[in-house]
Amino acid sequence: MSEAVTRIQVAGTAGTEPYEVLVGRQLLGELGALVGPKARRVAVIHPEALAETGDALRADLAGQGYEAIAIQVPNAEEAKTAEVAAYCWKALGQSNFTRTDVIVGVGGGATTDLAGFVAATWLRGVRWIAIPTTVLAMVDAAVGGKTGINTAEGKNLVGAFHPPAGVLCDLAALESLAVNDYVSGLAEVIKAGFIADPVILDLIESDPEGARSPAGGHTAELIERAIRVKAEVVSSDLKESGLREILNYGHTLAHAIEKNERYTWRHGAAVAVGMHFAAELARLAGRLDDATADRHRTVLEAVGLPLHYRYDQWPKLLETMKVDKKSRGDLLRFIVLDGLAKPTVMEGPDPAVLLAAYGEVGQ
Ligand SMILES: NC(=O)c1ccc[n+]([C@@H]2O[C@H](COP(=O)([O-])OP(=O)(O)OC[C@H]3O[C@@H](n4cnc5c(N)ncnc54)[C@H](O)[C@@H]3O)[C@@H](O)[C@H]2O)c1
Ligand SMILES: O=C(O)C(=O)C[C@@H](O)[C@H](O)[C@H](O)COP(=O)(O)O
Ligand SMILES: [Zn+2]
Questions:
Q1: Residue 70 maps to a domain
Q2: Annotation marks residue 230 as catalytic
Q3: Is 267 marked as a binding-site residue?
Q4: pLDDT digit string (tens) for 74-101?
Q5: Does the residue 1 lie in any domain?
Q6: Would you say residue 233 lies in a domain?
Q7: In terms of domains, do 117 and 247 share one?
């Protein structure tokens, strides 16, 4: 018996079209309709790890009458570079890709960020469809239209807001994911729990071992709940003029760690350390109760996510955080919690409190 498909709506804002995020199994039959009759060519951008999937999608689209090409890019963060974007632009140019043609990004968040960015920039914007294949990409990266690449100076420094025409989350894809990559995505699920939907935390705490596996009893519910949090936020603030900043919980320190590690850490692992830091910051500033701050440690640790980073790196991390995208001039800004599911902005924290919070995180 086939499982039901859940459809989550994302509203169109700032002149963009609404779209749906589908969660279920055997969703690839939906792809042709999403590509639509106006397209003649389709480019499937996929990572090396998903060469077979990329080729199967290309063959399927060719069978439906499209001129379909597959563009293979490196795995993980190595794909989020200007050089790889230029390689994709070249492939599109050589295929005579026009404004009515469509890009499909299939892979983890690194691939969907890149594919969306290529779609945003090719001919100043063509349609694209996301087929996320990691937990992280399903619950976060593929939804909301933030696309981009890294530079040596920082994470996601070049990008565009360019929402997809649709998102297909086929849960079967998660079965081939390495456990570390699966668990890394739980950091963004847990983030959604702390900022908006504490039932997520209850579900994970009720069965942390199950949460680490696609076969876990709550897998579909966790993914759907986290997508709903993201969809609701981006439906009202696509371009991050206010509310959307809450999705950056834990990311100020996380992005500094990722840059410091030259993008070899998984994003979710860095976000876990970043949320631990944000919780300690809010606790030490007298804004967050001990129980909720402690809950960060227990829930992140229960699923095997890291809490700590190198103590001696603090000066470098602080310098990077000063130019985080949320900073305004010299004003350092963090998303913190005033309580469970009560995210808010902390501006210009006392340097002594920042250092003390890092004292809990650094080792
Ligand atoms: N745009 C956004 O709103 C947003 C939100 C959150 C994160 N992100 C970005 O997402 C990226 C992290 O994404 P991620 O955690 O999915 O990592 P990832 O894309 O680096 O994927 C992790 C690894 O798994 C491989 N892989 C992907 N799917 C697979 C599958 N089904 N089976 C086997 N291997 C598979 C990938 O090729 C890669 O080697 C970061 O660059 C982060 O900045 C973006
Ligand atoms: O969608 C958002 O907005 C987020 O902040 C979600 C984050 O999980 C994601 O990592 C995002 O790419 C970070 O964006 P950035 O603007 O801080 O680079
Ligand atoms: Zn993130």
A1: yes
A2: yes
A3: yes
A4: 999 999 999 999 999 999 999 999 999 9
A5: no
A6: yes
A7: no
Same domain, 226 and 264: yes
Residue 238 Cβ contacting ligand 1 at under 6 Å? no
User: Is 35 in the same domain as 54?
Assistant: yes
- ipTM of the predicted structure? 0.99
Shared-domain flag, residues 29 and 161 = yes
Q: 284 by DSSP, 3-state: which?
A: helix
Do 29 and 161 share a structural domain?
Answer: yes
Number of domains in the chain: 2
- Among residues 176, 211, 226, which one ends one of the domains? 176
State whether 294 and 198 are in the same domain.
yes
Distance 268 CA to ligand 1 centre (A): 9
- At 108-150, the pLDDT tens digits run 999 999 999 999 999 999 999 999 999 999 999 999 999 999 9
Contact 298, 304 (CB under 8 A): no
- Is the residue at 147 inside a domain? yes
- Based on C-alpha coordinates, what's the Rg of the chain? 20
Q: Is 316 annotated as a binding residue?
A: no
Token duo for residue 155: 């994470």
Best mutation site among 71, 75, 171 for ligand 1 pocket (most ligand atoms within 8 Å of CB): 75
133 is in an annotated binding site: yes
DSSP labels, 82-147: HHHHHHHHHHHHHTT--TT-EEEEEESHHHHHHHHHHHHHGGG--EEEEEE-SHHIIIIITSS-EE
Instruction: Read off the CATH number of the domain in which 318 is found.
Output: 1.20.1090.10
- Residue 200 near residue 193, CB atoms below 8 Å: yes
Question: What is the identity of the amino acid at 330?
Answer: D
Best of 134, 150, 186 for a ligand 1 pocket test (most atoms within 8 Å of beta carbon)? 134
User: Whose Cα sits closest to atom 1 in ligand 2?
Assistant: 247
Residue nearest atom 5 in ligand 2 by C-alpha distance? 248
124 classed as catalytic: yes
Q: Domain range for residue 134?
A: 6-176
